[in-house]
Amino acid sequence: MEKNRLLLFLFSFMPGAGQMYLNMMKKGLVLMTLFCGVAFCAGFFYFELLLFLLPVIWFYSFFDAINSGHLTYEERIAADSDFMMGLYQMSSGDAKSVLKKGHAFLGVICVLLGLYILFDNVFRDLLWSLDNYLPGFRGIFHKFPTLLIAIFIIVWGIRLVKGEKKLEKPADFKEYEGDKHE
Questions:
Q1: pLDDT average, residue stretch 20-46
Q2: How far apart are CA 60 and CA 82, in angstroms?
Q3: Is residue 3 within 8 Å of residue 69, measured between CB atoms?
Q4: DSSP codes joined into one string, 95-164
Q5: What is the pLDDT of residues 66-114, one digit of tens each?
Q6: Which of 102, 114, 116 lies closest to 156, judged by CA?
Q7: Helix axes 144-162, 103-118, angle to 10 degrees
Q8: How many of the other CB atoms lie within 10 Å of CB of 18?
């Protein structure tokens, strides 16, 4: 069934609504929930750093809906199922192996982000009052998210350059033949 191009274009401006108009309900619901969830977390936790994800989600949703409008009904239903299957596989397999390998690294990132959120929302006014006694302190604290992202990129780059640690293959086992004193 051919969908109205104008309605598809208009629905595409709301993340997930264009996909829902095309009967891709699962994908549309995931995109709408993701967009609203990121906006809620950024506002509720006063964590403005998350706001950079909103345009990424919006553009993906918009262009995915427009491109999916050219598919047949059967292709759209298959793409919706493939999307959910990909999410399921990512949550059960690949993501878990990534988390197992880099759990300490991700843990440090989570702790640093949590500390930043705590200081930014709870202690910011107290720390900024110290600016009278320690000039420049406010500027350093204000640049903390940029510093955190820079450190993350540098550490990740070093890990990529080093590559995977290759375990040495043990030498073949040779059976003891006894002393040969002939």
A1: 89
A2: 17
A3: yes
A4: HHHHHHHTHHHHHHHHHHHHHHHHIIIIIHHHHHHGGGTSTTHHHHHHTHHHHHHHHHHHHHHHHHHH-P
A5: 999 999 999 999 998 888 887 777 666 555 565 566 667 777 777 777 7
A6: 102
A7: 170
A8: 28
Q: Give the Cβ contact number of residue 144 at 10 Å.
A: 14
**pLDDT higher for 5 or 133?**
5
What tokens appear for 105 in the block? 């690294």
The answer to whether the CB of 77 falls within 8 A of the CB of 19 is: no
pLDDT value at position 166? 60
- 117: its two tokens: 């959120």
Q: What is the pLDDT of residue 177?
A: 73
- With contact defined as beta carbons under 8 Å apart, do 62 and 11 qualify? no
pTM: 0.56
Judge contact between 28 and 42, C-beta under 8 A. no
24: alpha, beta or left? (left if phi > 0; alpha if psi -120 to 50) = beta
C-alpha 88: how far from chain center: 16
